[in-house]
C-alpha cells in the first residue's frame, strides 16, 4: 500500500500571530493618518456648506417672491453686494455719521445691546492690528498660583518702590473682548515668543489652533 504524501508544515502559531499583529498595526496607523487628513477637510466642507446655506437663506425667501427661476446662491450674492455697499457708505463722512447713529441706538436697546456690544468688540479686536496695541504675550498665574493663563501686555510702569509693573490683559475664551485687566510685577510673569495673533488664535479656538 502506497504511503500518503506528507502534509505541508503549518506555519508556526507565533509567526501567524505576529503577521496579524503587523497587519492590524499597519491598518491602524494608515487609518489614523487618513483620519488626520480627511477629518479637517470634512469639517471645513461641512462648516462652509452650513455658512453658505445660512447666508444664502437670509435673502433667499424674500427673493423667492420675485418672478423667474430660482437661482442657487442668489441670496448669498445679494448679501455680499449689500455688505459691499455698506462698506462704501461707511467710507464717507455722512455714512460714518449714520452708522455711528445706528450704533448708539443699538447700544441702548435692552438685551440687544449686550449681544451687539459683545459682537462688535470681538470683531474690532480681531480686525485691528493687535501687534501694535500690545507689547508682548506672557504667561501669568491666573486665577490662582499654579494655573497659567495667556496675557497680553498693554503697558509698563514703575511703582513708588522702583519695581517694574505690567498692565496685563487676560482674554477669555471664546470671546476675548470680555477679559480681565490685572497689574502684576514684571518678575511674576513668564515671557513668551508667541505673537499676539497666535495668542488670539489659541484663545478664540479654545487651544485647538
TrEMBL record:
<protein>
    <recommendedName>
        <fullName>DUF502 domain-containing protein</fullName>
    </recommendedName>
</protein>
<keyword id="KW-0812">Transmembrane</keyword>
<feature type="transmembrane region" description="Helical">
    <location>
        <begin position="71"/>
        <end position="94"/>
    </location>
</feature>
<keyword id="KW-0472">Membrane</keyword>
<keyword id="KW-1133">Transmembrane helix</keyword>
<dbReference type="InterPro" id="IPR007462">
    <property type="entry name" value="COV1-like"/>
</dbReference>
<dbReference type="Pfam" id="PF04367">
    <property type="entry name" value="DUF502"/>
</dbReference>
<feature type="transmembrane region" description="Helical">
    <location>
        <begin position="31"/>
        <end position="51"/>
    </location>
</feature>
Amino acid at each position: 500500500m502506497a504511503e500518503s504524501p506528507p502534509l505541508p508544515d503549518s506555519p508556526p502559531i507565533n509567526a501567524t500571530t505576529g503577521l496579524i499583529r503587523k497587519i492590524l498595526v499597519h491598518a491602524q496607523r494608515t487609518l489614523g493618518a487618513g483620519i488626520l487628513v480627511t477629518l479637517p477637510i470634512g469639517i471645513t466642507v461641512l462648516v462652509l456648506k452650513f455658512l453658505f446655506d445660512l447666508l444664502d437663506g437670509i435673502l433667499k425667501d424674500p427673493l423667492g417672491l420675485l418672478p423667474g427661476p430660482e437661482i442657487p446662491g442668489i441670496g448669498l450674492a445679494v448679501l455680499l453686494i449689500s455688505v459691499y455697499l455698506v462698506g462704501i457708505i461707511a467710507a464717507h463722512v455722512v455714512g460714518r455719521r449714520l452708522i455711528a447713529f445706528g450704533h448708539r441706538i443699538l447700544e441702548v436697546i435692552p438685551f440687544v445691546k449686550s449681544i451687539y456690544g459683545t459682537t462688535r468688540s470681538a470683531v474690532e479686536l480681531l480686525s485691528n492690528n493687535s501687534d501694535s496695541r500690545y507689547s508682548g504675550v506672557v504667561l501669568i498665574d491666573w486665577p490662582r498660583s499654579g494655573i497659567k493663563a495667556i496675557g497680553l501686555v498693554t503697558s509698563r510702569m514703575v511703582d513708588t518702590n522702583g519695581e517694574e509693573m505690567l498692565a496685563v490683559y487676560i482674554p477669555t475664551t471664546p470671546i476675548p473682548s470680555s477679559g480681565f485687566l490685572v497689574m502684576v510685577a514684571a518678575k511674576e510673569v513668564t515671557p513668551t515668543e508667541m505673537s499676539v495673533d497666535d495668542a488670539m488664535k489659541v484663545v478664540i479656538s479654545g487651544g485647538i489652533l
